[in-house]
């Protein structure tokens, strides 16, 4: 279990992480979204032990992460800005990983490289952006880490390859009980993969929840009542967002779907329709409710 | 888990480091190995054309001079390559994410660099040794000099690696890497040199290092060699590299830098990559140091020319320093707004300039006031003129060098030195240097310049001063009465193995050793006056040493960790045993060849020319009469051969025998000359008169007169 407690990280006057606390359970895929500059990459660098937090601490299974090789051995990290040795091929990088990571699995490396259709003897510098990302992912997964961190991993991957990478990550999580933390500025990338989602905004963790819960706990209601009415008319319902055009209102409601339906039905509506929300809509309305004006890319 | 945290070395990371440096390492090793083979090979090829092969004694740096490239170029390149990940955010993050502690990453990497450097040095140096072994007929390595040279190169490389690694841990851009590495390596020594030069210019009586006989400036191999190339040093590259003190100092300093770099690397933030400095304070330190390199030159020039420099010149110079100050900030941070925040740092620059001027005045006053009374002087030594290891020196110079260690403790000499020092200092104080010089070198003045190491009041100072003839006489008298001095003079240097050679073609090492050993014994048994006067009796304007030595014996010796080639004259009058050994060896060397020539059927061979010198030695005066026969080939030369054969006595000439040195010049593709020694029989006078009809009149008369 990864536990981050009150993490603060400043770069001169700029506050990149502001008192972030979260818990990432083992065997889950934890998604982290946020706009550019929200602090996602900084958060990953802190929990992978690259940056030292100015305040707070990261522990894995109760052990401090900072300068702890025993814990770092269990970690794989695919950063946003990839690094390969100058002029290196994938084979050369595999040699390096093999000398550093005790669990590096050469057969898995070969098998994944074959599955991705990458030439392991070719210089990585000649690869396309997407191929480089695939190469980094293969290398990281071949180290068989217990915790694997992907920073904007799906950037530059075509839809087919994106789904393929997702399936491999899921395999690792399911088969080996690995834990994956994935950041993205695109919520759509994460909604079908992650178990848990967190939203970072201007260095703060503004929202964190189980995805299934998020999707079912909020929904859109279209309702038309006879006679004049306003938002106050629905006092016993938890409305996050309310818009009325003529006699028809659109509401984002939080709560138990059946209970809400039953309550609204008692109002004898002319029209009553309950629709599911996309994850992006859920986030947008949750943020509004928290007082943020938030738009995702 | 705790063990992992304490782990300082990882074999995997080390191996990875070696792999990352494979390309520059192999290229450097290959190039330097090629040079190690080519240098001796070219040298030998050039000697193969020469008729008389002289086995040259060479020392490490001469055998493989390019090995210095290891610490000048290869070491910084390898150190920069292995730590270049610190200059990019993505690579810095990558290496900081590795499952090793930072000290472990650093130590494993730095050891990989040092391993490559050691391999390059020892492969190239080893090949040099192998080449010397293969061509041992032409060259012999002065014992220990190659290994000392290689160790010196390795020490210097460790120092460079240490400095570069410190610089890279506290900077994050290539330009800053370069500037800060240079500052670490050279800045302190550069400022000290500027102060020393300025004080030395104002005080010409101050001689050598301001730090006394310690000569600390030469301890740092890198700064000593690099700044020495710009005239800011007193030791040669070879001397610095082979000095055990410099090797230890440089290696220890390099290790200390590496230890500091480990600490700095541990606290370094990965985000420092792509920034010129981790924080504004360090950025200010670099900026101020860069500016101070310019300022220290200005301080030095102003202090030296305090009476002549104009205010506007100083203002322009400092304006340039300020421009450098801001330019560094602009280049490294690329932000105009940072120039404003850099302004307060100029106050520190001003304070440091004040400190440099204050130290210059302080040292000046302290040095000029060193005028001990005779009672305060504990000892005085005469410092010999600077001798560079590369050249060949007369024995007299070498003897003077040896006597530099002899401490004079004579009261009269102390009085002379004390008076002279007071006089020199008095003439210098408040005056310009040229006024001081002109006082002692003016027309009619009869001062002599001497350099002394004066030990007084617990201080040891070197002074170069002018002394009067009376003072000189007192000092020389004291010197000559010292048994240490006479011993230094009459003890010939110990020759390095196989480094003895003479002008004649004697190549047998055992014979040469025997000649030199005989000479050492004879000189040791000579009365000091006899031997000393041979070099220092200038009656008639020239030293006796230039009068007719039969030959010179040249030996390579190591003295005070420096290598010298010394020429010792062979005087037949005072060295009969040596002369005998010499002539015997020479005869033995060419007796068979000589007989072959003399017994050959004479033919009208126009490509062979026979010349001869005939000598009769005057044993008492080490003088000789001589005559020449200059052949031109053809019938006359054949007649000459017949005569030589007729008057030749069997066996080698002994001391006092008459003999001829007989030259045969043969032309094939080029002219080749061989010389042979011919003992002449007792009844050869008439024959000589006939043969040497082309002899010069005076020599011929001398010869006749002597017989």
Low-confidence parts of chain A, pLDDT < 50 over ≥5 residues?
none
Highest-level CATH class of the largest domain in chain A? Alpha Beta
- Which structural class do you get from the secondary structure elements of chain A? alpha/beta
Strand arrangement in the largest pleated sheet of chain B: 4-9-8-7
What does this structure look like?
The complex is a heterodimer of chains A (297) and B (707). Chain A is of the alpha/beta class. Chain A folds into two domains: 2-202, P-loop containing nucleotide triphosphate hydrolases (Rossmann fold), CATH 3.40.50; 214-289, Alpha-Beta Plaits. Helices cover 33% and strands 30% of the residues of chain A. The two termini of chain A are 30 Å apart. With 707 residues, chain B is α+β, with helices and mostly antiparallel strands. Chain B folds into four domains: 2-278, no CATH class; 377-490, no CATH class; 501-574, no CATH class; 577-706, no CATH class. Chain B is built from 27 helices and 13 strands. In chain B, a hairpin with a 4-residue loop joins strand 10 (608-618) and strand 11. In chain B, helix 7 (102-134) runs antiparallel to helix 8 (145-169) and helix 9 packs parallel to helix 16 (345-368). Chain B starts with a helix and ends with a helix. Chain A binds chain B through residues 11, 45, 48-52, 63, 67-73, 75, 77, 79, 81-83, 85, 95-96, 99-101, and chain B through 1, 4-5, 7, 10, 12-13, 15-16, 19-20, 85, 88-91, 93-94, 96-102, 104, 269-271.
């Amino acid at each position: 279990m990864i536990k981050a407690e009150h993490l603060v990280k400043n770069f001169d006057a700029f506050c990149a992480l502001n008192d972030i606390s979260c818990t990432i359970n083992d065997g889950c895929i934890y998604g982290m979204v946020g706009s550019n500059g929200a602090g996602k990459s900084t958060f990953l660098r802190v929990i992978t032990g690259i940056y030292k937090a100015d305040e707070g601490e990261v522990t894995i299974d109760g052990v401090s992460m900072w300068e702890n090789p025993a814990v770092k051995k269990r970690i794989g990290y695919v950063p946003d800005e990839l690094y390969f040795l100058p002029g290196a091929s994938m084979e050369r990088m595999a040699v390096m990983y093999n000398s550093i990571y005790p669990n590096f699995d050469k057969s898995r490396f070969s098998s994944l490289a074959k599955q991705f259709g990458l030439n392991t003897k070719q210089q990585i510098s000649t690869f396309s952006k997407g191929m480089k990302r695939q190469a980094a992912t293969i290398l990281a997964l071949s180290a068989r880490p217990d915790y694997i961190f992907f920073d904007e991993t799906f950037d530059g991957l075509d839809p087919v390859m994106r789904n393929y990478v997702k399936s491999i990550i899921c395999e690792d999580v399911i088969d080996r009980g690995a834990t994956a933390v994935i950041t993205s500025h695109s919520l759509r990338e994460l909604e079908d993969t992650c178990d848990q989602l967190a939203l970072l905004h201007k260095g703060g963790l503004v929202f964190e929840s189980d995805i299934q819960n998020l999707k079912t706990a909020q929904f859109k209601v279209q309702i038309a009542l006879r006679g004049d009415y306003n938002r106050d008319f629905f006092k016993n319902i938890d409305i996050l967002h309310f818009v009325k055009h003529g006699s028809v209102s659109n509401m984002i409601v939080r709560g138990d779907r059946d209970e809400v339906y039953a309550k609204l039905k008692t109002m004898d509506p002319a029209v009553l329709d309950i629709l599911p929300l996309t994850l992006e809509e859920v986030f947008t309305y949750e943020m509004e409710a928290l007082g943020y004006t938030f738009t995702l890319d | 888990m705790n063990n992992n945290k304490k782990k300082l070395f990882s074999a995997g990371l080390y191996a990875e480091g070696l792999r990352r440096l494979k390309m520059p390492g192999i290229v450097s090793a290959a190039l330097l190995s090629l040079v190690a083979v080519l240098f001796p090979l070219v040298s030998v090829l050039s000697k193969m054309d020469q008729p008389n092969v002289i086995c040259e004694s060479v020392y490490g740096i001469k055998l493989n001079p390019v090995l210095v490239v290891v610490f000048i170029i290869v070491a910084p390149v390898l150190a920069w390559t292995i730590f270049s990940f610190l200059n990019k955010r993505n690579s810095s993050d990558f290496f900081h994410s590795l499952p090793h502690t930072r000290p472990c990453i650093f130590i494993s990497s730095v050891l990989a660099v040092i391993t490559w450097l050691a391999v390059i040095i020892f492969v190239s140096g080893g090949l040099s040794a192998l080449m010397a072994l293969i061509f041992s007929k032409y060259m012999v390595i002065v014992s220990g000099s190659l290994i000392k040279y290689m160790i010196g190169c390795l020490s210097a490389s460790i120092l460079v690696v240490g400095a570069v690694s410190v610089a890279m841990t506290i900077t994050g851009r290539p330009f800053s890497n370069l500037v800060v590495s240079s500052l670490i390596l050279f800045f302190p020594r550069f400022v000290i040199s500027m102060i020393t030069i300025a004080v030395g210019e104002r005080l010409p009586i101050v001689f050598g290092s301001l730090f006394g006989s310690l000569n600390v400036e030469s301890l740092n191999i890198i700064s000593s060699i690099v700044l020495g190339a710009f005239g800011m040093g007193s030791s040669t590259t070879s001397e610095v590299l082979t000095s055990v003190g410099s090797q230890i100092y440089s290696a220890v300093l390099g290790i200390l830098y590496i230890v500091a770099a480990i600490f700095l690397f541990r606290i370094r933030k990965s985000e420092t990559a792509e920034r010129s400095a981790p924080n504004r304070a360090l950025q200010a330190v670099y900026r101020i140091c860069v500016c101070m390199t310019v300022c220290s030159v200005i301080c030095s020039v102003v202090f030296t020319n305090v009476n002549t420099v104009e205010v506007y010149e100083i203002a322009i110079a400092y304006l340039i320093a300020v421009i450098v100050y801001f330019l560094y900030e602009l280049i490294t941070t690329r932000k105009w707004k940072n120039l404003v925040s850099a302004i307060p740092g100029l106050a520190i620059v001003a304070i440091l300039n004040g400190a440099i001027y204050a130290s210059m005045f302080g040292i000046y006053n302290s040095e000029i006031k060193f005028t001990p009374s005779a009672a305060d002087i504990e000892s005085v030594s005469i410092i010999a003129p600077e001798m560079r290891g590369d050249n060949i020196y007369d024995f007299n110079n070498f003897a003077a060098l040896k006597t530099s260690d002899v401490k004079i403790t004579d009261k009269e000499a102390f009085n002379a030195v004390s008076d002279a020092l007071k006089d020199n200092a008095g003439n210098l104080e408040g005056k310009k240097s040229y006024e001081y010089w002109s006082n002692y070198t003016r027309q009619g003045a009869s001062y002599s310049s001497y350099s002394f190491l004066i030990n007084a009041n617990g201080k040891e100072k070197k002074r170069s001063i002018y002394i009067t003839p009376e003072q000189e006489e007192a000092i020389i008298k004291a010197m000559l009465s010292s048994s240490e001095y006479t011993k230094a003079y009459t003890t010939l240097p110990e020759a390095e193995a196989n480094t003895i050679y003479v002008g004649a073609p004697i190549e047998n090492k055992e014979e040469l050793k025997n000649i030199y050993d005989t000479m050492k014994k004879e000189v040791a048994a000579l009365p000091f006056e006899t031997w000393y006067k041979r070099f220092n009796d200038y009656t008639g304007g020239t030293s006796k040493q230039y009068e007719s030595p039969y030959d010179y014996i040249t030996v390579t010796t190591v003295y005070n960790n420096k290598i010298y080639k010394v020429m010792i004259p062979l005087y037949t009058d005072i060295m009969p045993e040596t002369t005998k050994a010499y002539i015997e060896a020479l005869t033995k060397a060419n007796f068979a060849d000589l007989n072959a020539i003399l017994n050959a059927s004479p033919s009208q061979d126009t490509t062979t020319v026979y010349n001869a010198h005939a000598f009769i030695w005057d044993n008492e005066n080490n003088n000789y009469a001589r005559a020449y026969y200059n052949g031109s080939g053809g019938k006359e030369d054949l007649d000459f051969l017949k005569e030589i054969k007729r008057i030749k006595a069997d066996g080698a000439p002994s001391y006092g025998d008459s003999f001829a040195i007989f030259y045969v010049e043969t032309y094939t593709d080029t002219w080749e000359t061989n010389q042979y020694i011919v003992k002449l029989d007792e009844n050869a006078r008439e024959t000589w008169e006939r043969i040497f009809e082309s002899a010069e009149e005076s020599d011929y008369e001398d010869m006749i007169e002597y017989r």
